[in-house]
Amino acid sequence: MKGILYIVSTPIGNLEDITLRALRVLREVDLIAAEDTRHSSKLLSHYGISKPLISYWGEKEKVKSEEVLARLQEGQSVALVSDAGTPGISDPGNVLIEKAIKNGISVVSVPGPSALTAAISLSGLLIKEFAFIGFLPPKKGERLRILKDLDMEKRALIFYEAPHRISESLEDMAEVFGERKAAVVKEITKVHEEVLRGNLTDLVDQLQDTVIAGEYVVVVEGRQKGEASFEDALDEVRALMKKGRGRKEAVKIISEQYGISKNDLYEKSLLET
Length: 273
Known about the structure:
With 273 residues, the chain is an alpha/beta fold. Helix content is 43%, strand content 18%. The strands form 2 sheets. It has a 5-stranded parallel β-sheet, sandwiched between helices. Helix 3 (60-73) packs parallel to helix 4 and helix 6 (140-150) packs across helix 7.
């Protein structure tokens, strides 16, 4: 009989933020596959848990996942943990999870702390829908390209960012998104947890007056109705047509995104060609 792979969420800062179920599973499994065994050992030691550990961090993930998979096929149970939060969400773990599923291994979620949802709740923004983007590219050109692609998104946008890039990324967001409301949350659940709120330009200034350290989550409101001009909509229609979309299809897509008249946009687009 094959074993079970448990995807176990662990604290993102405060060690008290772990569920009773997660502790039980960590005590009962045969093996714990950890992103970094040194980091996970601190959590396990805090709760008096002693189990065999195997690291799957970085380049080791593909190789070590085969070793873990072999254990699962032998009938052993394995808990998959990352350094913080849930494996596979902007963290390693996907390789092992995918292999387990393909090989008929039962995969069970043991949910818990999430920087994503914690930041949304702390943001103070009214958010009914959101799009999780995760980490932006380190290079400015690639980062700006992705942000521009997201400019029309009406849902709130959630980003993760490292301390050495937070200032540059926030400046790029202000450049692309303008004066949208946003929140920057750092060190969630830790001693130095801090939330900065305001429009993006204000946040760029506020960040200069704070100590930059730890992991960051940035929450940006989606595009609001009336935020863009008719000319912006025309530019979007032209861009879609260059990508091979028909005029009617492009106009339909953009008019819905901008909340403007489809007929007016179509007629105006004819005059532009």
